[in-house]
Amino acid sequence: MKSLDSFPKIEAADDNSNSETISTSPKPPKVENPHKDQGNIDSISSQEQTPGTKLADRLRALGVESKTIKIENGGEFSEAIIFEKRPPQTEKLVRIYRVINHLDVSVLNQIPYAMRNENTSGVPTTIEKIKQEVDNLARNPTYDNLLTYVDHVQPYLNPDEIRRMNDELADLEKMVLQGFSVRKELVMRQIHHLGGYHADHGMTPYISASLNPKESANYGHKGLMVIDIPLSEIEFLGIHATEIAIKGALDPKYISAIIPRQKVLENERIQVEAGLDIALQEVSASIQSNLYSNDGLRLEQDAKIATEKITDKEQWKKDVDILRKGRTEKLKKRFPEVITGKHHDPINREESGIDQYTQMKQEIFDHYKGQLENIGRNKLDINDYEYNVTGVNENLKYDRTKIDETMLIKLRELVEAMEDRQARRTR
Question: What distances in angstroms separate CA 98 from CA 76, 105, 120, 187, 244, one per listed residue?
Fold first, then answer.
C-alpha cells in the first residue's frame, strides 16, 4: 500500500464539470471493493456506502492508504477521509483549506490556471507538458520565466485563449512599467478567476486556498480539502488576508484529509458552520501535523511579506530593464523613421534621468508633434486634438507625460490624416 508521499499522479476524473482537476487521460477501470465485508466503515457494502467510503475505496484500489472516520453531529459533514503520511512531517506546516466541487480520484490532482485550457469541445483539460515551466514561474516569478512560460504554452491554446493571454501579458507588463513586481501582479491576479466550476485559462501559476475553512466551505458544494503545507510552498495575498495561493501544482503528500459534504439546501449557514466546526475538531484529532500556532503564523506571515518587499524591488529592477529593452526594440521596428540613436547613449540617459524606453517614446512623440505643427500655413496645436481607446469612456489628450504605445500610434495616424487632408487642399 502507498501513502500520499509515493502516490502516482491521478489522471482521471469522473466529472468534467470541475476545471481544477480535469485530465485528458482515460478513466481507471472499475474495481470491485477489495475490503467488502471486513466490518469497518471503509469496507461497508456498496448498498450502504457513503460518498466518502466510495472515494476511499477507489483510492485504495489505486494504492493510496487512508481511513474513513464517522463524524457525529457534523450535519452536512458526517465523515472524513484521513490520509496516512510516511514519514510524518517534521517541518512546521501551515494548515489551509480548499473547496471540492466534485468527489472522485482526480481530487488529488490539483492544478493552477496556468496549466489549463479548453479544447474544441469546450471541455477543460490539463496541459501536463508545461508543468515544469509553471513550477518555475510559481517559485521564481521573474519576467524571463513568464516569457518562457508564454512561449511554451501557446501551442496548446486555442486562438481565443492566445488572444486573452496576450492581452493579459500586455496589461501585466504595463503594471511592471508602473513599478509593480511580476510576483505581486501574478499573485493578485489569482483572485480575478471565478474558480469553482469555471474553467478559464490564465497566467497565474497558483492554486487558490484559504486559511479560513468556513470561507472555503461557502464555495465547496462537495466538500473541503484539508492541506498541511510548508510556508515556502504558498504565497499570501496580503498582511491580513486569509486567501492563500499555492505555488504550482499541489503535491498530494500535503493533503491531510478530505471532508465530503452532503449539501442540504434548507440548512441555514449557522447550522452548516456548526457542523463544520465539529468535523474539523474530529479531523484535527486524527491528524498528526507539526502546525504553526495562530500567533506564530502571523509572525511568519509578516516577516515573509516584509522580506518579499525587498526581494520584489530588487527583482523588479532586473525585470523592468529587460522589459524596457524589449519595448525599445519593438518601437524601433514600428517607427523606423523616428530613430535618432540618442536613447542608445548611456551618458545621455544618465544626464536626462530617464530610461531608454521612456526616452524613445518621447522622441517619437516629439517627432510627430513637430510634423503636426508644421502642416499648412497655420500651425496646428496638438492640444486641440484628442483620441479614443476601446474600453475607455472618454477621449484622451496627447499628453507627453503619459505616453504609451497606443498614443503614439494614434498620433501618427492623426498626422498622416492631416497631411493627406492638406495635400488634397493644395491640388
Answer: 17, 16, 29, 17, 10
**Can you tell me the distance from the alpha carbon of 360 to that of 404, in angstroms, rounded to the nearest whole number?**
11
Q: What is the pLDDT of residue 13?
A: 39
Instruction: Tell me the pLDDT band of 97, cut-offs 50, 70 and 90.
Output: very high
Tell me if 200 sits within 8 A of 113, measured CB to CB: yes
Which tens digits make up the pLDDT trace of 217-272?
888 789 999 999 999 999 998 888 899 999 999 999 999 999 999 988 788 889 99
The edge-to-edge listing of strands for the beta sheet with 206-210 is: 66-70, 79-83, 255-260, 223-229, 94-100, 206-210, 243-247, 234-236
* pLDDT on residue 45: 45
**Cα distance between residue 70 and residue 369, in whole Å:** 76
Cα gap 392→383, rounded to integer Å: 19
List, in order, residues 6 or more apart from 51 with CB less than 8 Å away: 79, 103, 222, 223, 260, 262
Task: From 129, 122, 194, 124, select the one nearest 155 (Cα to Cα).
Answer: 129
> Do you know the residue count of the chain?
427
Q: How far apart, in Å, are the Cα atoms of 162 and each of 10, 107, 152? A: 28, 28, 12
